[in-house]
């Protein structure tokens, strides 16, 4: 196994753990975005550029934005 691929797998596992154990929803959205970037890197290393493009669009931009908007709506728009 490629050492760079092994490092990417470890980073993805660590990123997933950080996302799961983050308690505040707004911080969790940010860590979810970073996790999406890590997954994109993994998919590029696995030579799946189409999946990587989808992941960078959805996993690191759209989903964290939706979570932040939902948190803002639930909190009543307070800053």
Automatic annotation (TrEMBL):
CC per GO annotation: plasma membrane
Entry keyword annotation includes Cell membrane: yes
Keywords of the record: Cell membrane, Membrane, Transmembrane, Transmembrane helix
Positions of the MrpA C-terminal/MbhD domain: 10-75
Organism annotation: Kutzneria buriramensis
Transmembrane regions listed in the UniProt entry: 6-22, 29-46, 52-71
Membrane topology: Multi-pass membrane protein
Compartment(s) where it occurs, according to its Swiss-Prot or TrEMBL record: Cell membrane
Extent of the signal sequence: none
Pfam hit, one: MbhD
InterPro entries linked: MrpA_C/MbhD
Name of the protein this chain belongs to: Putative MnhB-related membrane protein
Superkingdom of origin organism: Bacteria
């Amino acid at each position: 196994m490629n050492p760079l691929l092994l490092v990417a797998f470890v980073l993805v596992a660590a990123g997933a753990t950080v996302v799961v154990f983050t308690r505040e929803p707004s911080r969790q959205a940010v860590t979810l975005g970073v996790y999406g970037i890590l997954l994109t890197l993994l998919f590029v290393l696995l030579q799946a550029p189409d999946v990587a493009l989808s992941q960078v669009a959805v996993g690191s931009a759209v989903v964290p934005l939706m979570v932040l908007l939902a948190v803002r709506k639930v909190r009543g728009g307070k800053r």
